[in-house]
Design goal:
This is Hypoxanthine phosphoribosyltransferase. The chain has four helices and nine strands, in the order βαβαβββαββββα. Bound molecules: xanthosine-5'-monophosphate (XMP) and magnesium ion.
């Protein structure tokens, strides 16, 4: 059998591995300044944010903790339903904590706005969001996101944690999936 390369399934590369690395370093410097003297809790949203979390956390030179939450709002489709279900809750108690939510992508914003409300009710001292990608044209609700990597067009993207049918998360770049993959 011939070896296939998953990067052949992309039509366009939107953000390269190097661009991601540079951007996370830039965001990390801002975060270090903003959280100086504070103990920050990074909350990664599974599974998409795994790569961002791993790379951002290693860029940061301030004391931090990491926790994870798994939610689902999608079902099998590629459109957010707005109905969010907790699949794995946080281990940490948020009372008095400075929480920085780490997200792969803000699409409609529905998942994040639900999360922000949910976290606010748990008594966090502060809650901010860091998202690697954002699709401004897809926004259904406004969410305040203090740290944004890249604004991208309203296409379904994969790579660097983002999947199609659980695949492509291991691509190093972020790109648009080729039509032949859907067929
Ligand atoms: P919403 O629409 O609630 O989306 O802002 C939140 C979650 O949906 C996933 N998502 C994507 N996953 N390619 C993906 O692989 C995409 O283009 C895409 N858009 C949204 C993602 O998990 C995000 O956190
Ligand atoms: Mg996600």
């Amino acid at each position: 059998m011939e070896q296939s390369d998953i990067s052949d399934d992309l039509t366009t590369i939107l953000v390269t591995e190097q661009e991601i690395r540079d951007k996370l370093a830039e965001l990390a410097r801002q975060i270090e300044t903003d959280y100086a003297g504070k103990d920050v809790l990074l909350v990664g949203v599974l599974k998409g944010a795994v790569m961002v979390m791993a790379d951002l956390a290693r860029e940061l030179r301030i004391p931090l903790s990491m926790d994870w939450m798994a939610v689902s709002s999608y079902g099998a489709g590629t459109k957010s339903s707005g109905v969010v279900q907790i699949r794995k809750d946080l281990d940490a108690d948020l009372t008095g904590r400075h929480v920085l939510i780490v997200e792969d992508i803000i699409d409609s914003g529905l998942t994040l706005s639900w999360l922000l409300e949910n976290f606010a009710s748990r008594g966090a001292a502060s809650i901010e969001v860091c998202a690697l990608l954002r699709k401004p044209e897809a926004a259904k609700v406004h969410v305040e996101c203090k740290y944004v990597g890249f604004d991208i067009p309203n296409d379904f993207v994969v790579g660097y944690g983002l999947d199609f049918d659980e695949k492509y998360r291991n691509l190093r770049d972020v790109g648009v999936l080729a039509p032949h993959v859907y067929a």
